[in-house]
Every structure is written in C-alpha cells, then in structure tokens.
C-alpha cells in the first residue's frame, strides 16, 4: 500500500485512479493492478493472478488496457460517482465494484475487505462480461443473437441469471413476434450475453455449480452457448470449459 494513503481517506474513484496509475504492477501487456491495502501472497494469487490468468487471450483485441484497483471499500456517492473508502460505509451505500475509462484505460475498482473470494470472483467476471458486451465485434454479437433467436423459436424456457430471466419474460409478454428486432429484444440479448459470459469466464477460473430450478435454462441450450463462447473467446492453454475436458487434458 502506498505510504501517501491515509486510512481515513475517501477519494472519488477518478481522483484515486489519477493519483496512483503510475504505481500499477504489470501482469501482462494489457493488464496491471494496484492494491490500496496490504495483501498476503496467497491473497494476491486468489484475487489477481488466478482470475486474470484464466482470461481468454483474445479479449485483449476488444478490451482497453485494464487497470485493476483493489481497495478496502467502495461507497456510492450519488451524482459525484463512487468513492474509495478505508472505513466501511453504511450498508445502503456499500458497493462491490466501480469502473471508469481514463485516457484509453479501463480502471476497474474492486472492494476486497470482508469480501468472500467466490463473491469477489463473480463481481470481477460480471464486470468484464458487461464490458465485453459493449465492445464485442459486430460479427460476434450477431452470432450470439442468432443463437438466441434459435432458442426463442424453439421455445427454450429459462435463463442463466435473474436479470436476463426477467427481460426474457418481458419480451414474451409484450412482443408477439419474438424474433422481431426491437429495443426490448436487444436489451434481453445484451443481458443474456452478459450473464452467460459471466458464467463462462467464472467457470474457466473456478469449479462452480450451475443452480438448477424452474428458471434455469436447460442444459442442452446452455451448453451450446458455452461452446459458442469458447469459439469466440478461446480459453488459455490448459484451461477447460466442461468437466469432461479435464480428464482429457490430464491424460
């Protein structure tokens, strides 16, 4: 942690990024990090090295240079943006992540104090999935859209997460022709991609379970989505998408 930081400091994320961007530790040609609190080696491995190491290399083609800022807490601050905090804010103002673009760099702030590692990983990959959904190439976007239209034509029930499930239900209620290109359909497609990409990226790094239930997308449709994402964004060498691939990799 930088000696210029005070434990009582509360700084807007933009000011914090400007102040400490020259103290970033490089991880790769497009990713570096800064930690505003002392972390043990095993913590750095869990919070930085492992999740970043599992990212598909091709993401560097569509994402800006990524700057990870690990801070104790983040506080929502209305119109003035989020704040980096060293004392825990009220629960109603506490946020897990914040981001901004500054000089063609993407600063991704993650609150790590008292944060469960599994929740941290989900927040990390969900933030990246949201960024990818905005910056992916048009042929990639169109390919995922064709797959979802195929699902809608086959009346595939369910979704990956609650957000995309709600948008899918709205689409069904408000639009007779589900295959017609509308803002409602585009909103659903974007959220569906974000939720599915979060699962894909998280699954490359960690052994996670997909929750079963009446709202869950059937396995055959989910597998087709993950297979497509593997083709669009191939995992790093040595990383598997499906459990059965682990056996082939170790053979």
Written description of the protein model:
Strands 2-3-4-9-8 form a five-stranded mixed beta sheet, with helices on both faces. The protein has a four-stranded antiparallel beta sheet with strand order 1-6-5-7. The protein is globular and about 55 Å long. By secondary structure, it is of the alpha+beta class. The protein is 45% helix and 15% strand. The protein has helices at residues 13-20, 41-53, 117-135, 138-153, 162-174, 183-205, 219-232, 243-250, and strands spanning 10-12, 25-26, 31-35, 65-71, 73-75, 83-85, 94-95, 97-102, 105-111. It folds into two domains: 10-135; 138-246, no CATH class. The longest helix has 23 residues, at 183-205. It is built from eight helices and nine strands. Helix 3 packs across helix 6 (183-205), helix 4 packs antiparallel against helix 7 and helix 5 (162-174) packs antiparallel against helix 6 (183-205).
In a nutshell, what does this entry contain?
The chain has 251 residues and is α+β, with helices and mostly antiparallel strands. The chain contains eight helices and nine strands. The strands form two sheets. Strands 2-3-4-9-8 form a five-stranded mixed sheet, with helices on both faces. The chain has a four-stranded antiparallel sheet with strand order 1-6-5-7.
List keywords for this structure.
251 residues; alpha+beta; 2 domains; five-stranded mixed beta sheet; four-stranded antiparallel beta sheet; 45% helix; globular
**Chain-averaged pLDDT:** 90
SS summary, helix count = 8
The Cα radius of gyration reads 19 Å
Main sheet specs: 5 strands, mixed
């Amino acid at each position: 942690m930088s000696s210029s930081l005070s434990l009582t400091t509360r700084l807007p994320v933009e000011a914090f990024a400007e102040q400490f961007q020259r103290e970033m530790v490089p991880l790769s040609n497009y990713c570096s990090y800064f930690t505003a609190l002392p972390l043990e080696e095993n913590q750095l491995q869990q919070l930085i090295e492992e999740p970043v190491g599992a990212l598909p290399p091709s993401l560097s083609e569509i994402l800006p240079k990524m700057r990870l800022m690990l801070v104790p807490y983040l506080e929502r601050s209305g119109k003035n943006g989020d704040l980096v905090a060293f004392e825990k804010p009220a629960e109603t103002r506490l946020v897990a992540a914040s981001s901004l673009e500054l000089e063609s760099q993407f600063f991704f702030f993650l609150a790590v104090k008292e944060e469960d590692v599994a929740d941290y990983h989900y927040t990390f990959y969900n933030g990246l999935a949201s960024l990818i959904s905005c910056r992916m190439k048009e042929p990639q976007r169109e390919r995922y859209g064709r797959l979802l239209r195929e699902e809608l034509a086959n009346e595939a029930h369910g979704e990956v997460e609650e957000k995309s499930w709600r948008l899918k239900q709205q689409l069904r209620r408000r639009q007779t022709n589900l295959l017609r290109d509308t803002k409602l359909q585009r909103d659903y497609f974007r959220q569906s991609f974000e939720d599915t990409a979060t699962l894909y990226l998280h699954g490359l790094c960690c052994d996670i379970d997909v929750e079963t239930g009446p709202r869950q997308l059937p396995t055959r449709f989910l597998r087709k989505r993950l297979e497509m994402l593997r083709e669009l964004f191939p995992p790093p060498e040595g990383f598997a998408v499906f459990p059965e691939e682990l056996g082939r990799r170790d053979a």
